[in-house]
Amino acid sequence: MEIRLENLTKVFTNKKTTDTLAVNQLDVTIPSGKLIGLLGPSGCGKSTTLYMISGLLKPSQGSIFFGDDDVTTVPPEERGIGLVFQNYALYPHMTVSQNIMFPLENLKVPKEEALERAQKIADLVGIGELMSRKPAQLSGGQQQRVAIARALVKEPRVLLLDEPLSNLDARLRIQTREEIRRIQRETGITTIFVTHDQEEAMSISDEIILMDFGVKQQMGAPQNVYDEPENLFAAKFLGTPPINLFDGKITAKKIKLGPAVIGTTQSAPNDIVIGIRPEGFVVEEEGPIVADVEFVETIGRDTTLIMIDPTDATKRFRAIVDSDYRIEAGHQVQLSVKPHKMYIFDHETGERL
Amino acid sequence: MLEDKSNVKAWFYLGPALFLLSIFIFYPIFNALFLVFLRDYNYLQGTWEGFTLFENFFYVFRNQNFTQALTNTMIITFVSVPISVIIALLISVWLNSVLKLRGFFQTIFFLPYVTNAIAIGMAFAFLFNQNYGLINTMLGWVGLNPVNWVGLGATWGNAMFSLLIYVVWASLAFKIMVFLSGLQNIDKQYYDAARVDSTKRYRIFRRITVPLLSPMIFYITITSFIGAFKAYTQVIGMFGVRLGPPGNDKSLITIVALVYDALDRSGVPGALSEAAATAIVLFLITLVFTLINMQVSKNRVHYSGGGK
Fold it and tell me: What's the pTM value of the predicted model, to 2 decimals?
């Protein structure tokens, strides 16, 4: 099921304070059968978007299409969606099996068929033996799977997950996100999940939609967005450790970081922000950037250098280089930049140049 | 040392409450337990004729009003409690979903709780007045003849019906307040989840609201049963010390009324022990029904987060 959001806008009105523009004219087409990560910092409107797709929130403007059907005014109970809540919202008084069968009872599926389908979906998500337990007797990861099973059992057209991993501990999070990936592949259901964790979104999504201040920043395959950020926000939000930013200048088609010329461009002379990924530096004797090394961390094959920003001595930047180089704190190094790991942005608008 | 200090402080805080409880609750309870085994205890002279196990209880059962009191108490309890719990539940679910004028409705439903029972009783007595009362006026609108609810020579049935309406109404306020706070504690996500899963409204009520509210419902049911077994003020409020409509005196007598009845005769040797024995009979009835209640609801009450 392809999902299309057209000009989708949500304004929260509040008597006491000013209105909040949570989602601003969002235009997105979500391809059928894919796992989509809706990514952004807290308060960027990603959950609001998800709840508008579910129908629990009404858009202030714009339309939502499921395939060719305009579902903008269709109530949630008729949209055929499965929704997994951040806190799972499992009914505490029902057993796992009753929780999973609950949506089927509403659809008047005969009891035996319901039992069979519940068992099948429970086996799929790996909780087949826990059917007679109550939610309180389950671990966080198990509760999460019950919630997914409950959302999937009625064979929805779309599966929506709100911060599905935020209540799990670090190890379980990695395990469960792969589980979500597997379940999505096996069912082939169009799935949208909301997260603020870029690593989580990058690791399992077919495509990510990056949002900030209610506005879509960029959409694409995770690696593409990482490699080709369209603006400063996209460059800053993706990547651990984060991208290094420097104030630079374009003079006579040369990109200048302080005195160092680190590349050429066709753009007009301007104040710019230069973004260089930590892995984008190479230690070279003739490298144009000269920096003082403040601190060296060697972990396995990688060496991380923390250096003083040559353009602003109060700032630090970080480079990940091969541990072949023996570099010590307090020394000076010369660095060159891999062109495809460097991006330049307009100083005012943050747009990529 | 530290522990000693905090203990002293705790007793200090508990002191005033314990002092009052001792005088007005603990001493009377133990005194009643003592009195019940005295033969022909004379309150005025402080003398008695030895001890007895059951004699005072025989006095209770031989009281000509005992059967009537027991019947009335049981009817008041078993009719008013279920009806008021169900009505209160429906009203609170409705109130919880009302957005406009909610505070206004909440105040209206809460008013009986802060109003004097005798005053409400008098108002109800007037509502049921044969000639001027609102009830008979309304019956007139649909072409029915006026009924003698609580007037001279009113039948036991009519008087009991009026009393029950009053008891149910007066007990709604507290229940609604408890249910409403319970409803507001239920996570909204359960309702969102139910909506996404196309759950019909009555099913949401039956399968989600009621189970999640069950600890409150259980608490209210138990305390209401205990409260209803003690019915007395309501009868006084509506019918005064005659305990029934004029000409049908004592027809609405309750067990607690029997206690006061015996106390009225406290000059007579043994009367005080009879009052104590009546109180203990009421205590045993209450205890038995509370235990039954707890047993019945054992598997129907779901404490959230429990189950472990």
Answer: 0.79
